[in-house]
Design a protein that fits this description.
The complex is a heterodimer of chains A (about 250) and B (about 350). Chain A has about 250 residues and is of the alpha/beta class. Chain A is about 40% helix and about 25% strand. The chains are: A alpha/beta (about 250), B mainly alpha (about 350). Chain A: This is ABC transporter ATP-binding protein.
Chain lengths: ~250, ~350
Amino acid sequence: MLEIRSLSKSFGGVKATDNVTLDFADGSLTAVIGPNGAGKSTFFNLITGALTPDAGQILLNGVDLAGRTPPEIVRHGIGRAFQVASIFPSLTVQETMLAAVCADQRKASVLHRRFPLSETRDRAEHAMELLGLASKRNRTAATLSHGDQKLLDIALALVLDPKVLLLDEPTAGMGTEERWRMIDKVRELWEKQKITVVFIEHDMDIVFKIAPAIVVLCYGRILATGTPDAIRRNEAVIEAYLGTEHHAGAAV
Amino acid sequence: MSELQADQGAQALDVPQPHAKTRRNRDVLIALAAFVVLALLPMVFSSKFLLDFVIRCAAYGLFATSLNLLVGYTGLTSFGHGMFFGLGAYGFGLMMQKTGVSVPVAFVATLAITFVTALVIGAICVRLKEIYFAFVTLAFQMLIHSTILSWVSLTGGDQGLRGGIPRPPFWGIDLSNHLHLYVTSCALLVIGLFLMHQIAQSPFGYTLRMIRDNATRASFIGIDVWRAKLTIFVLAALFASTGGVIMALFVSGAYPEFAYWTISGEGIFINMLGGVTTFLGPMVGTVLLLILNDTVTRLTEYHGLVLGIVILFFAIGLRKGLMDFVIEWYAQRRDARGK
């Protein structure tokens, strides 16, 4: 279980994350939504160690991870993918997977053997199969399509067998059709892997359709949490966020 | 075509493990063959000039290839790598002159000194980003150079270590014999290249590539980036230092120029000439630079101008080193044939 307790972070005078307390049950799928600048990415950066919190706790199965470095947090089982696909451009898909498993097995500094290590093979293979990248195994990451790069980014997080997977806008920069394919993939992964998934998403249709639980952030604070139906009816949410979206929708 | 594909040729990684051993055995065979060819060279060509040339190639080649572990494989552009070349030459020379230990002991001790120095300097430098890393390494280079110049009682100041380095025979090897020195240099070169190739192809080598490509992502899959950078910084320093030892043995002395920043500059120059995307690029660059140096200085006193034009040709004309160019050309031709 991932428990966030009174998490806070300020930049200058701006409270990017303001006293956030949240629980993510094991095996849950949660969408984080909110207007631009609501502090969604900061929230992820705090959990994964990219930023150090000013105050608060991040408890994964009771262990406080607040203030630890990204490698430590990853090893405790929190993996992440990035809004802009963060990959290794010159490595092939397969090399990327093999090297990531190698790092997970604490063999990233082995000098006396040859890459790739045989014991990393099955897990790398499994991750490529899961994300549908097996047929592109020998492609250099830089030559993949945008969508495949996003999948590779997710594969990089998933291949480490995380307990919690944080996806920062998995559908960013995609066309409508591709978005749905990606989000189906995310849902499929969640169902198959039985891990806790938290994702940031802007497309409300997607969020209401697939996320059993939703967290709404606004100005760094939690505006509301609940099921899609509860969120849709929540007046504070409509006023701060959904209302404007609806207007925008009507205008189109 | 990426460096990795080029490196592994057509063989895919689909069947990794059986290949790992054969690939290493293949490397051992290539290394042995290279050594035998080099060692037999004096029987065919007895020109002292040629042997001298190969010895210098060994010294600079180890230095330049180790620099490529930083520049090409890890993305750490050091402008102070030459300090370890100088440290190797002075450390070894002083040890032989002042303590009277045997050659192997002095060699190991020199590596130990380099290890400690590189660890301290690296711990400070590898935290810094790109241009800052380049400049702070350069600053350390100048610091070491100034120390050599001003510590006259130990280093002989701007005169360097004079009076020759004693080279007592060991294990039946007499380094004051030119042929023995030649064969020993070749052995050090081949062993050094073999070890560096092993580093480049090890899991750690791929960790370095990940750091070069995207250090942030590497840290988010659990890699301690700082530690990995420090490790390769120290390892590269050891090979550069070995190059310096060969140089000290060759000239039977050590001079402040060995620790001057221009050595680091030449290292970068060699890497640009030969190319950083293949393992042997810097070795090719070394041979090219030394040939250029030897011929151009004989023909004109403006050799700096000529070398400058050559590097401009590679940097602006080809936009890559010679080996990069050859590999790409070969790949294109193979693709064309495939179609």
